[in-house]
């Protein structure tokens, strides 16, 4: 509560049958695993790191379709910013810059706290893969638990367009009120979304710079043109794309 006004928070969580196929993760309509509902397209680190031989992809943390293991993946979307636009507008008309800044900061922190608390609920009850987890607040803050919750657009999965699949699976706009802009930013901005991975070796990593061969292969998997992928992943390219810009007449 800020200045007597309330922020509204909403969230949605889903667990889905899934298996990996190469660098992709197939998500199925049901446990028969006969029909693919969505395919999460992954990227793999290509650039070698000092003292590391690992070139991970998020698909490494889901059992391969050929393994016969019935694996799963989770998804979530939460927001604590519903109604914030009206509050910010009100503070602006009152020239109250302090409360305008504070309401945004509070909404962001509440969204992150909500995402963390729901992840704990998923680990210990909903998915129940870590039922005996007993961690101190400090250990929770440090992420000393099994599993990760990477978000589309962040280092392990830098392609923001993958957010569209997550929102479709969760019916996130209907269930939370969060919408995606044309650039796949979330509105309200005090929102968090991502995938849940339960593999004990799952960890966060940075895909980093990728070469054109992966861009071409990734574009094919996503049924997009390489030039489109280059625009979305511009900061991850290890080369200068050959994009013909229109000339002024």
Determine the N-to-C terminus distance.
55 Å
Shape: globular
Main structural class: alpha+beta
Q: Beta fraction of the residues?
A: 15-25%
> How would a textbook summarize the main sheet?
5 strands, antiparallel
Look at the structure and give the mean pLDDT: 92
Helix content: 25-40%
Order of helices and strands: EEEEHHHHHEEEHH
Low-confidence stretches: 245-249
In DSSP terms (H or I, runs of 4 or more residues), the helix count works out at 7
- Our Rg estimate from Cα atoms comes to 20 Å
Can you describe what's shown?
Helices cover 31% and strands 19% of the residues. With 249 residues, the chain is of the alpha+beta class. Helix 1 runs antiparallel to helix 2 (97-126) and helix 6 packs across helix 7. The radius of gyration is 20 Å and the shape is globular.
């Amino acid at each position: 509560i800020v200045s007597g006004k309330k922020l509204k928070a909403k969230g949605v969580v889903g667990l889905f049958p899934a298996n990996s196929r190469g660098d992709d993760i197939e998500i199925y309509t049901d446990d028969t695993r006969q029909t693919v509902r969505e395919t999460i397209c992954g990227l793999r680190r290509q650039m070698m790191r000092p003292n590391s031989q690992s070139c991970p992809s998020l698909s490494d943390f889901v059992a391969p379709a050929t393994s016969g293991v019935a694996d799963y993946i989770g998804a979530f979307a939460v927001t604590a910013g519903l109604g914030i636009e009206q509050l910010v507008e009100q503070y602006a008309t009152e020239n109250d810059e302090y409360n305008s800044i504070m309401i945004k900061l509070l909404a962001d922190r509440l969204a992150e706290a909500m995402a963390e608390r729901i992840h704990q609920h998923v680990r210990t009850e909903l998915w129940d893969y870590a039922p005996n987890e007993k961690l101190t607040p400090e250990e929770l803050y440090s992420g000393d638990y099994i599993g990760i919750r990477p978000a589309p657009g962040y280092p392990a999965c830098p392609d923001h367009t993958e957010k569209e699949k997550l929102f479709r699976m969760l019916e996130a706009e209907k269930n939370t009120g969060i919408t995606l802009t044309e650039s796949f930013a979330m509105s309200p901005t005090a929102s968090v979304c991502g995938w849940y991975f339960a593999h004990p070796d799952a960890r966060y990593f940075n895909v980093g710079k990728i070469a054109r061969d992966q861009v071409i292969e990734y574009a094919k998997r996503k049924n997009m043109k390489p030039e489109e992928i280059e625009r979305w992943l511009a900061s991850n390219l290890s080369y200068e794309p050959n994009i013909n810009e229109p000339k002024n007449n």
